[in-house]
Amino acid sequence: MANTHHISNEVLRKAYRQMMLAKAMADIYEENRSICKYVHSTSRGHEAIQLAAAYQMESEDWISPYYRDDSMLLGMGFTPYELMLQLLAKADDPFSGGRSYYSHPSSRAEDKPKIIHQSSATGMQAIPTTGVAQGIRYIETFGLKKFKNNPVVLCSLGDNSVTEGEVSEAFQFAALHELPIIFLVQDNEWGISVTKEEARTADAYEFVEGFKGMNRMHVDGTDFIQSYQAMKEAVDFVRRERQPLLVCAKTVLIGHHTSGVRREFYRDEADLKKHRAKDPGNILRAKLIESGWAEEDLNEIEKEARREVEADFERAKNAKEPSVDDVATYVYAPCPITEESGTREPEGVKDKIVMVDAAIHAIQELMNKHPEAVLYGQDVGARIGGVFREAVTLGNKFGNKRVFNTAIQEAYIIGSTVGMSAVGLKPIVEVQFADYIYPGINQLITEISKSCYLSHGKYPVSNIIRVPIGAYGGGGPYHSGSVESLLCNVKGIKVAYPSNAADFKGLLKAAYYDPNPCVMLEHKGLYWSKVPGTEDAKTIEPAEDYILPFGKGRIMIRADEEEIKKGRTMVIVTYGMGVYWAKEAVKDYKGRVEVIDLRTLNPLDEDLVYNSVKCHGRCLVLTEEQLNNSFAEAFASRISKACFRWLDAPVETMGALDLPAIPVNSDLEKAMLPTAVKVRDKIAEILIF
Questions:
Q1: What is the average per-residue pLDDT within 262-280?
Q2: Domain Transketolase-like pyrimidine-binding: where (predicted)?
């Protein structure tokens, strides 16, 4: 007799019914391949563990399903019809409004566990989901919210995704900080056509043995009764002990990898037969019959499931398509900061501050006012407060739960902000040098930038990513790079590049109150005004209420009206260190050159620039970056197009030489970069026209 007495008949009936729903859905999709034209995967072979997991979770919990988890979504309470709306990319798709693939959910439904935006990138959900657990731990530590029950976070993964380095970053952080998260690894022994023997030396259970603090268990994920018992034990443990746990569930792959990579492409009949022999629906059916359930009742459940799915499929087929007029909605969440406000230069204040202090003071004011603000990254903790002292004093003032060091894990630092933001926190994080942002680019592009758009506005990521940038003083090839062109090509994020203390403080305040992801590019040579000619980066410190919105450039130097009337003027459009090269260079052309500081690169104050270019007829776009294919060249092209009728000369660009890295030798560095002298010579060329 099968041991089912401890699981209610209601749960067993529900599980069998939803397994039959999942089977019917997969069958109908296969029967209607021409209609189900968008790529999709199904949970066939994984139904037992997915349902068992879903049944344990409560409305205050969080789940990150992966792209094969439609049974998990059924178990959470979503209907076949709702899932099919996404399958067919219909307007009423509750997850993405027709923008993302099948079984790529996002949900804030009050009666279900919450789901952050889910991408297709294998294993990438591990970091954002661990960020959710990190956020819950923070909320519990500071009592920012009362929960009915201790929330549990569940991150679902395929077995081959565990070989991804970013998954290990998530395991490491979860184990080190004792986060309340379950990593559910569904191991069907295949990674598309790659076998387990080709891909890995151990399964997930064996792999995580080295992550001290990570609890673990094995389970037969094809057996619903075993899976239910295991997942109940797992969820109860994490809910009670607030420690991470990995569940390695052995499953089978009965369906295709995806509709586009069909099983017959790479699997022989012997392998398929082995997997079909452990069909979770058949296993549960046999145990129910052994326990005394009538076979006729089970047959009727299966028939009823097929009828329900057929009806839902017909409804979904006939549902309305998304309006093309809505294709550009939800790129960003609405930002409340649209105008400059507060006091930029308080009365009676004469002393100026350096840029680095402006940032420290801004963050301190924000953290004093907002307990949800948290700062972390490499070396930002109390011991040194950042390698440029850009966070000094903050660790001592706010403690190591609000300001803390991380390991060298740029992907985790950046990607965790997704989960932190989702639970209502405001993470301020730092990548130590711009040159080291590349390991985090996957999270920035795949998870952060797309979250608002693909969740149909449910999950904008509210964060601030601080990035020290730029070259001076022989920093060399791995500490001096510029990355703004890369970042400005990422749609869905905002990018600031302040050149002075007042702008820096105002933009940081705006970034905090912006519900969207904001990257602050902070030139290392301007932090302390140590570079000759950058004394003006120091300003009077704005008042605490000062806010400078993104997308507002500033004319730093104006041309004389008389020179403008004579047609003898031009404008330099620049940002960051370029402002100081320009200010020095124009001293030889008094009254003939206007200098615009963009202050933010996305959004960009195009109106200010275009109006200025139309006035002067000549323009130089100046950057520190290597020039070819850069942000500066792209913007110069747009200026040329928008202002063509008003131009007296081609729009010129100037930047660093197109070399793969910045040399460490100071003379070579100077030869590569723009300088005030080089800018002065370029001005002379342009004014000749």
A1: 92
A2: 353-529
